[in-house]
Write a structure and sequence with these properties.
The complex is a heterodimer of chains A (about 400) and B (about 190). With about 400 residues, chain A is α/β, with parallel strands linked by helices. Chain A contains 19 helices and 14 strands. The relative contact order of chain B is 0.10. The chains are: A alpha/beta (about 400), B alpha/beta (about 190). At the A-B interface, helix 3 of A face helix 3 and helix 4 of B.
């Protein structure tokens, strides 16, 4: 018996696992006829999920937390048992603005702390507040940008203007002079670089080396009522993700994503993020960032509760929600490692033994306890060296400059 | 009640505006979601904002609704969150509606229902236009296939068409599909079509 499933997505390179699951037959093998519903804004993707027009959605991890906490329109309990990727964002600024930064782009990207301080100085030279596009208030990009700016003493709510606009409109807005830069998921940063409008200033992977990005989100009641379907879908996605991580498949994957019904951008632009060959300034050689976007290895899809709590800590930090223990628990419970374990129990996917970990504590690849197979966690440091202990959120928050 | 319609498509906005005016609403403004549209919207202080669900600018609008001080009263999507049938109909039709807090739902519901009807009517017109356009290009394809046959097999137009039709019937395909296959084959063989 075939199950029809509708999943909403946005035209982004990190829709890759969903597209591969459909186009390469992984969903079909599990008896799932996958219909991917393209959406143009996060608001519409959210409404489609919350009001039951789709079964699941490729969602910004912070948005899944925000909807559950009632911070983004109609409150609804969402559940994320699977991460579709980690990393994959890029901050680009107009060439005029970037002229005040380290001119060697490879060095600029490799040193986010130095670049953040150069950026702070550049704001002074710019004579007005730079306008930076972010894709959503509750996006990983926005949280990372805020974290990065604040590290150099820049107040993201006062010293810059953050303007929300959807990824597909970023390049046009830059061309029209409405924004001086933006942080977005690929391929939109690369599209602005390729058009000669902008240069790369920072990449997400260098801000938080294993930054949580998109999750697969369900309405929680539906997830609880349909364990069999959820498990089959997760198994299909795990196989699709392994396929997506394999370098030998990147050219084909880029072609699949380039189709008008998915990302609708040139395959060679899309391929950059997949292979980690990032062109930071038009016409220059690519800078290698092999961990630019991960789908499968290092148990990437595993929804660590500590990562949901890190997101929560940032929402508190930026006064988007009031901190109390009950709210924190609710936020942490959006990530569902229990469902992930159940679905992939009999597969060959490496399974972490714990559901929480210190975030930002791994410097070098680290072999860890796993219920099955070899599991090596990649370096997950924040660029400023802070470590997030999910059991001590208050201490973590107190470590930032007071009020911030 | 001040109603602002945010829409890229001039035609759809006009279709909606007309309907609202016929129903007796007269304080209606159309704002295209470009440039500083959020600032314009703030100055207008609307009671209801109607927007195409498919518009990529919804995130921009919602951010404004979250942080704006100019709009004194909070705005939520849909006035009555419990009316699932209404919400379902609105989403199906591609309408998103933002309504200021405190506006009575009896006052908003007719506006929403009207917007849903008009959006549906517009989608139907659009669908018919697309169909007409497809029919037109289908005819061009068949015409081109006919002229290939007329040139290469020295057939009359009528015979060329009869040949295409019988081929289509034999293969259980549409005439336009058979024609397209013929054109492709002819191109590949260097016939260059015409």
């Amino acid at each position: 018996m075939t199950t029809d499933l509708k999943i909403a997505f946005l035209p982004l390179t990190d829709a890759a696992v969903l597209v591969a699951a459909r186009e390469r037959g992984f969903a079909e093998e599990e008896g799932i006829a996958l219909e991917l519903v393209r959406s143009t804004s996060w608001a519409t993707l959210r409404d489609r999920l919350v009001y039951g027009q789709v079964h699941a959605a490729q969602m910004l991890a912070p948005l899944a937390v925000a909807v559950t906490l009632g911070l983004s329109q109609q409150p609804a309990a969402l559940a994320a048992p699977y991460k579709l990727n980690v990393n994959g964002n890029m901050l680009v600024m107009t060439s005029d603005f970037a002229a005040a930064l380290e001119p060697d782009v490879a060095r600029r990207i490799a040193d986010p702390l130095g670049t953040a301080h150069d950026f702070a100085a550049a704001i002074g030279l710019w004579r007005r507040k730079p306008v930076i596009g972010v894709v959503h208030r509750f996006s990983s990009h926005s949280l990372m940008l805020r974290y990065w700016l604040a590290s150099a003493g820049v107040d993201p709510d006062k010293d810059v203007v953050l303007r929300v606009l959807p990824p597909s409109l970023t390049v046009e807005a830059m061309r029209a002079g409405e924004i001086d830069g933006f942080i977005a998921g690929e391929p939109w940063g690369s599209a602005a670089v390729e058009a000669g409008l902008a240069e790369t200033v920072a990449i997400g992977e260098r801000i938080w080396r294993r930054g949580v990005e998109k999750v697969l989100a369900f309405r929680e009641p539906w997830l609880e009522e349909n364990p069999d379907i959820v498990d089959r879908l997760l198994r299909a996605l795990a196989r699709a993700a392994a396929w997506c991580d394999d370098g030998g498949n990147h050219a084909m994957l880029a072609k699949l994503l380039a189709q008008p019904r998915y990302v609708d951008q040139p395959a060679d632009l899309i391929a950059r993020a997949l292979s980690g060959q990032m062109v930071a300034r038009a016409g220059e050689a690519a800078v290698a960032n092999p961990d630019f976007m991960l789908f499968s290895r290092e148990a990437t899809p595993f929804p660590w509760r500590s990562q949901a709590l890190w997101i929560y800590s940032q929402l508190v930090r930026w006064n988007m929600v009031e901190h109390d223990a009950a709210t924190a628990a609710k936020a942490g419970a959006v990530f569902r490692p229990d469902v992930y374990r159940r679905a992939l129990a009999n597969s060959d996917v490496a399974m972490p033994g714990a559901s929480m970990k210190l975030e930002g504590a791994v410097d070098l690849p680290l072999a860890v306890g796993s219920r099955r197979g070899e599991l090596t966690l990649g370096p997950d440091r924040f660029f400023d060296g802070r470590v997030f202990d999910p059991e001590r959120i208050e201490d973590y928050l107190a470590g930032f400059v007071p009020g911030r | 009640m001040r109603i602002v319609i945010i829409d890229d498509s001039g035609l759809r906005a006009t279709v909606l505006e007309e309907g609202l005016r016929e129903a007796g609403y007269d304080d209606i403004h159309i704002v295209p979601p470009r440039g500083a549209f959020v600032a314009r919207l703030e100055r207008m202080a609307p009671d209801v904002v109607l927007m195409d669900l498919g518009s990529p600018s919804r995130d921009t609008l919602e951010e404004m609704l979250t942080v704006s001080r100019a709009l004194a009263r909070p705005i939520a999507m849909f006035v009555d969150q419990s009316d699932e049938a209404m919400i379902g109909a609105a989403i199906d039709a591609g309408v998103s509606a933002y309504v200021v807090d405190g506006l009575r739902k009896e006052r908003v519901k007719p506006v929403l229902e009207l917007a849903v009807r008009r959006f549906n009517a517009f989608a139907k017109i659009q669908g018919e236009l697309d169909e007409a356009r497809t029919a037109l290009s289908d005819r061009k394809i068949v015409d081109r296939a006919k002229s290939i046959l007329m040139n290469q097999r020295s057939l009359s137009e009528q015979d060329a068409y009869a040949l295409l039709r019988s081929a289509a019937m034999n293969q259980g395909k549409k005439i336009v599909e058979v024609s397209q296959a013929l054109i492709t084959a002819s191109d590949l063989l260097g016939g260059g079509g015409l």
